[in-house]
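As a warm-up, study this chain.
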Amino acid sequence: MDLKETNGILNTTLRRHPWERARVAVTAYFINKFLYRKEGPVHVLDIGSGDLYQAKMLVESRENFHVTGLDTGYSEEEIRAVKESRWGKRLNAMRDPEEITRGPVISLVMLMDVIEHVEKDREFLEKWVNNAVIGKDTLFFITVPAHQSLFSYHDSYLGHYRRYSEKDLILVCTSSGLKVVGSGYLFFSLWLMRVLQFRVEKMLGVNRPPASDLSEWKGRRWTANLITWFLTADFRVSRFLQWAGIRITGLSAYALCKKA
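Now compare it with the structure written out below.
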């Protein structure tokens, strides 16, 4: 989750939003699909790692995962807190991209809702593709907000330059030196709800500021569990339809890539 939407990193009391919990399940699905046979230490680089929720989930779910969370918004105090935490042996926080130039080859690079924050997204991605710690078998998992037609006040608040279609994302990846091995959309149901909300707001002239601390769920626990289940089912249905040759849209686009 973006640091603008949280109360800081390593917040263990936060009640996570169902969308964020569902996204963890999506990441786990692709990791199991592409990295389940990986033996020995698996080194993961989470670029734009925000409050480290996704990184912590990876460390807790896999004993051989070593995760580095990179975010320019971290303070020295937060970086030190990560080192001293119970995750500190296999979770590392950094804020300077220049530090990621040496060390073991990275098995997985996660850029989850990151490149839309970068004005020159191709140059940014190409720099990481050519980094010394990126090998020929390194997997890139990239997600972005989908559909420029849905660009709103919330995108502006978060510092987004754009939203992407699946084709847009593929073009950025291939022009940055990556080969796309899988792509598509995520969360059709959220796209449908957002389209309806967007049209109503536009019709009524609503341009409200976004709420603060958007990562925290304010509703009941059972409701959160139900929505998380529904969104995970939404993803699995879309994967089945894609396998059957039927492609549907979603609120996020994703690409799985390796070096070309």
